[in-house]
Amino acid sequence: MRTPDWVASPWRRRSAVVVAGALPVLAFPAPGLWWSAYGALVPWILLIRTAPTGRRAAYDGWLGGFAFMLAMHHWLLPNLHVFTFLIAGLLGALWAPWAWLAHRFLAGSPSPGRVSAALLVVPSGWLMIELVRSWQGLGGPWGLLGSSQWQVEAALRLASVGGVWLLSFLVVAVNVALTVLIAVRTSRAPALAGLVTAVVATSAVWWWAPRPDVRGEVRIAVVQPGVTDGPDARFAREEALTRRLAGQDLDLIVWGESSVGHDLADRPDLSDRIAALARATDTDILVNVDARRSDRPGIYKSSVLVGPDGPTGDRYDKMRLVPFGEYIPMRSLLGWATSVGEAAGEDRRRGTEQVVFDSGKGLRIGPMVCFESAFPDMSRHLALDGAELLLAQSATSTFQQSWAPEQHASLAALRAAETGRPMVHATLTGVSAVYGPSGEQVGPWLGTDASASAVYEVPLAGGTTPYVRFGEWPVRAALLVLVAWGAFEGVRALRLRRTGPRPLAAQAADPSSTSRTTRSHSS
């Protein structure tokens, strides 16, 4: 297999892999070129399949994965500095086995059968990457490929069936099929069949997937104070904006993450001021307290519901913390990160369980804090526990001029579609957004330049989506595909060991087998 002249130089090849690996980021906000996701992996896969060996393909996978992670999290550079590169390099290693797998199936002139298998195995390998890096200790599931489709109605319907995982599988499968159509002329039939199957399956899901059973609506107010100078000024601005909501017949008022900078038990004056606002608006207020607790040691980020008589007793302590931002992993080894970036000087404490609140007017709400909205399993568990409205209280003011606020706000659309429950994403400084039970946008976004309160008429829905009922079944199916492929390759290797290589006359009669054998040894 001959490497194209334009990437024959090692440095040109590395540069091409870096560009190709970063390319999928354009499908996410803020660029928002969602349609590009269906071809964004093609240049990367084309480079991987031209690698002279499987080891070189794995290196191309690591380098492209590093570029993807760095581009996806580039807005962390001013805060984490060198750690951004370190994290991207470590996570990029997850793409090495995936690239080896893609090379194994697509290098040279693969047979139609191998291409058919690649349409299942290569996307399954990608899902394993997304599953592993979704672990909170590795930074969480930020930038899952399927989440780039958050504004596509057909994709949101698919999410209600298989979550963001099904979307990621579909996007990668389409990229594999397009790669084959471009580079493997002899095996285009299965690639075309794969594309047709994807279209037919998507259409079938569109007609079959149950729609949310809409049952009335509620009026939710979001208070976004904007950029302020310190917690006291922020509280005063939130207070002024909330006071304007009096007389608007609301069901709930939501403030953003870290909207209160003092423990309410330590500061009864603040508790009384919020209760006075609840009386003036005749509505409970969900605030977020970022402070050292008076009843136990440590700093917590907590969603606290405050009614006309003060805190109702409903409280949710954030469970999944942001690495480096809210705690430093292995602080004894990596504590020096505080000297080179804006890493957490003191680790926040974790909550132990998710909680569903009664808002005071019969509305059951499921709170999450900050990047917990990126975790599909958390919103799914809240829906199973009876939440009628999902909420995420967030603050991305540190990254105000980056792509982070738009990326974060878009995640709520996926969580709403997956669960069939509306979701409110309330922030301190934007972007705040609200989505209906199908993932459709409700009302306008509050951008990063807004300091305002806004009221949204949010439809409620009953029923249970297939994703809530069956969970991450695409991930389990992908794992079965990989196990089946591994078993097949193991049996094949044992058979070859027993019988030896095929005679040269048989190989000459079947040139494709010679190509496969050569690729097998080179890999």
Summarize the SSE layout with pairings.
Blueprint: H1 10-22, H2 42-49, H3 54-72, H4 77-80, H5 82-92, H6 95-106, H7 112-133, H8 153-183, H9 188-208, E1 213-224, H10 231-243, E2 252-255, H11 268-281, E3 285-292, E4 299-307, E5 310-317, H12 331-334, E6 357-358, E7 364-369, H13 376-384, E8 389-394, H14 404-419, E9 423-427, E10 433-435, E11 452-462, H15 466-470, H16 473-499, H17 504-509, H18 511-522
Parallel strand pairs: 1-2, 2-3, 7-8, 8-9
Antiparallel strand pairs: 1-11, 3-4, 4-5, 6-7, 9-10
Helix pairs in contact: 1-2, 1-3, 2-3, 2-8, 3-5, 3-6, 6-7, 7-8, 7-9, 7-16, 8-9, 8-14, 13-14
Order of helices and strands: HHHHHHHHHEHEHEEEHEEHEHEEEHHHH
Portion of residues within helices: 40-55%
Q: Mean pLDDT, nearest integer?
A: 91
- What structural class results from the helix and strand content? alpha/beta
Q: Report the total helices.
A: 18
Give a quick account of the main beta sheet: strands, pairing sense, barrel closure: 6 strands, mixed
Radius of gyration: 25 Å
Model regions low in confidence, pLDDT < 50 over at least 5 residues: 505-523
Strand content: 5-15%
| Major β-sheet strand ordering | 5-4-3-2-1-11
| Overall number of strands | 11
Coarse shape: globular
Measured distance between first and last alpha carbons = 13 Å
Notes on the protein architecture:
It is a single chain. The chain has about 525 residues and is of the alpha/beta class. Helix content is about 45%, strand content about 15%. It contains 18 helices and eleven strands. Strand 4 and strand 5 (about 310-315) form a beta hairpin.
